[in-house]
Amino acid sequence: MSEHTASIGLETKSFDADVLQPSVGNQGVDIRKLRPETGYVTFDPGFANTAMARSSITYIDGAAGQLLYRGYDIEAVAAGASFLEVAYLLLYGKLPNITELASWEADVSSHTMLNEEMRSFFDAFPRRAHPMAVLASATYAISTFYDVYRRPTRIQEIDAGARTLIAKMPTIAAWAYKKSIGEPYMYPNNEYSYVENFLHMMFSRPTEITPIDPAIVKALNVLLILHADHEMNCSTATVRSVGSSRANMFASVAAGMGALWGPLHGGANSAVIEMLQAIHDDPDATIESTLERAKDKDDDFKLMGFGHRVYTNYDPRAKAISTFAQEMLDRMDASDPLLDIARELEAAALEDDYFVERKLFPNVDFYSGIIFRALGFPERMFTVLFSIGRLPGWIAHWMEMNRDPDTRIMRPRQIYVGECARPYVPLEDR
Ligand code: SDX
């Protein structure tokens, strides 16, 4: 028995458990023997109090509003690194040196093209297809071109799969957008950096190359970094869950995209804009009436972009994005009435007992849509941008899960409250 133990008193017995020690943060009561030894299970909907694994990728101190990627503070990383540098950090646990970064960037850059047969894949979608549906489907689809990645056994194949997904995701995203506006697909130009290439494929046309604004490149690098990982969030837990059945990296990531799309998760960045636009367009809507709706238990309306399972303080990403949004708009000598409404909502909520008592603060999605709009992206692309950012985090967790000796196929238990065994009643007797 380790020197850290806990004893759980049950009705007729007690259960002695090891207490697992963290580098920092919550200790963990190891309940792996609870059911075999006592017949009891624990009940924890949403796994709000349950650790699904030991991980060394990202640490969040929800009370302090701190976020660390492999131990580095998010604000320092966002200020000093490129998105590909952060992707390398999350995947391999260390900041790359000059040679490693140059090799990584060149490797990614030389795999940005899609197999030409994928064109017909995009053509098969209706123009109105939501780009998240296209992104997840295309992520499954590109695995069909690489049998080796479907059943990776050697580390080289796993690294190649990670590089392939990271390299091709902006191309898939841009082609989904071009399809939705009826414009020709733009091929990647590997003279550009990763983010420049994405902007090129999104906003250039065969007839005219849209100049790449370095300020927008910098802003998008930071935004992708801020979205790159967030420990065991819903979509990452989904990637780990699907991967625990030995499903391949592509299938596991595509499943994570489905989870991220939900409006309570990454889909919130779109839902925030819809909420702000509705307030803007409704002459009868006020900040006060909006907050009242959010507090009304009979109204399923929530203040989108507010609240978080882990943060009981300001989400550091929301703080960074809020500042960025203002700087970008000031630089463009532009204003956005939705930003003004967002700021009024934030100020009012942070003084309202309901939000204060529940420690509800703006999260990463509250301001991200406003800056995505300012950078020229349409609302339907916001969760796609979140996916491009979160991709290295998903892959890092998939890799860690596959290396972890504790990993078992995800198969939770239940507390059954249905009918006990009863005799079948033939149709004529019912
Ligand atoms: C992301 O997990 C991650 O790390 C996610 C993420 C990442 O990087 O991967 O950070 C990205 O998904 C951010 C969250 C984006 N979603 C939203 O902005 C949607 C609005 N937020 C809520 O739906 C909610 O706050 C969640 C989903 C974010 C968190 O839900 P929880 O942890 O299950 O909390 P809860 O719903 O149990 O809320 C606790 C109380 C409840 O009131 P009471 O029952 O105590 O009276 O707070 C209330 C809730 O009704 N509440 C809200 C609210 N959020 C919580 N009330 C009004 N508006 C809200 N937004």
What does it look like?
The chain is mainly alpha-helical and 430 residues long. It is 51% helix and 6% strand. It has helices at residues 34-38, 74-80, 83-92, 98-109, 118-123, 131-142, 147-150, 155-181, 194-203, 214-226, 234-243, 249-260, 268-281, 287-295, 316-331, 337-349, 353-357, 364-374, 382-403; strands at residues 5-9, 14-20, 28-29, 58-61, 66-69, 72-73. The strands form two sheets. It has a three-stranded antiparallel β-sheet. It has a three-stranded antiparallel β-sheet with strand order 4-5-6. Helix 8 (155-181) runs parallel beside helix 9 (194-203). The longest helix is centred in the middle third of the chain and has 27 residues, at 155-181. The chain starts with a strand and ends in a 27-residue tail after the last helix. The model has no long low-confidence stretch (mean pLDDT 95). The protein binds s-citryldethia Coenzyme A (SDX). The site of s-citryldethia Coenzyme A (SDX) has 22 residues, from helix 18.
